[in-house]
Amino acid sequence: MEKLLKKSSWTDVIISMLFILFGIMIIARPDTIVSVISLFLGAICIIMGILKGVDYFASGKTDNYSLAIGIIAIIIGIIIMFCSSIIFSLFRIIIAIWIIYSGLMDLQTTIIWKDYKSKLWLLTLILAIVMIIGGIYILINSGAMLQIIGIIIIVYGIMDIIENVVFIKKVENYLE
Left, alpha or beta for 63 (phi > 0: left; psi -120 to 50: alpha)? Predict the structure, then answer.
């Protein structure tokens, strides 16, 4: 049982190291990662579309639903493969506008809290300003969202490694 627990934990550590490596790659080369992921997801959609088309013809052309799904999947796959930067830019702009909007709403809340002499108004003001600046940063910097995701993945990987090492030590101490 001890060997199984240790082996499982070390496997988790290796997976966490791969997460850290992936996070570093996202931070270092966000555009390349988007292109690779887009090609991969586009290829999957195209393959699914082709399989649905084959299924349509294999079923004796009775299931029009399969043909429609197959054609749509192929079209979506092509769009994902060749228009990934446009799709990602639109998504980034929408997220940035939402973050700026939320920051502006928090600024309004700050004014209300200050009028009620709440002690939280200063903290809310600082956080609202940080959100607005962060939204503007994401709007201006095309790789910002991926860099933030990369940082989150790295932090997750590090925390998971620490958790697994602590678990391994506890198993060793428990079995002694």
Answer: beta
Identify the residue whose tokens are 């749509």: 72
Q: 142-162 in b/e burial notation, b at 16+ Cβ within 10 A?
A: bbbbbbebbeebbeebeebbe
Q: Tokens 């910097």, residue? A: 141
Three-state secondary structure of the chain: CHHHHHHHHHHHHHHHHHHHHHHHHHHHCHHHHHHHHHHHHHHHHHHHHHHHHHHHHHCCCCCHHHHHHHHHHHHHHHHHHHCHHHHHHHHHHHHHHHHHHHHHHHHHHHHHHHHCCCCCHHHHHHHHHHHHHHHHHHHHCCCHHHHHHHHHHHHHHHHHHHHHHHHHHHHHHHHC
Q: What digits encode the pLDDT tens for the residues 85-106? A: 787 778 778 888 988 898 898 8
Given a cut of 60, whether residue 109 has pLDDT beyond it is yes
First and final C-alpha spacing in the chain = 14
d(CA 108, CA 120): 13
